[in-house]
Design goal:
single chain, 4 helices, elongated, mainly alpha
């Protein structure tokens, strides 16, 4: 992710008022950085599996409210992270 995109995402995530998101997002961000820094596709896939598990914690949130903008933004960002993880896992299977 380019620095400008990362800064925009950081700005948006900082505004989300959700305790679950605020707990999980740093963990997912750390995993994303590790994925970006490793070279081996297998290692990326292993990290991507961890990312999926962390994303599921948010996506299965019992407090989700479709009328709450924080919930919508949280779910959108988390869904993007999970989809990215799925693509990495698929790429590993093709390698």
């Amino acid at each position: 992710m380019e620095a400008k995109q990362r800064r925009i995402m950081d700005d948006e995530t900082a505004k989300i008022n959700c305790s679950t998101f605020k707990k999980q997002e740093p963990v997912m961000q750390d995993i994303a950085e590790k994925i970006n820094n490793v070279k081996e596709v297998q290692e990326k896939a292993e990290l991507a599996e961890k990312m999926q598990k962390e994303a599921d914690v948010i996506l299965l949130c019992s407090d989700y409210d479709e009328n709450d903008l924080d919930c919508e933004n949280c779910r959108f960002i988390t869904s993007l992270r999970k989809k990215t993880a799925e693509l990495i896992i698929k790429a590993n299977k093709l390698a």
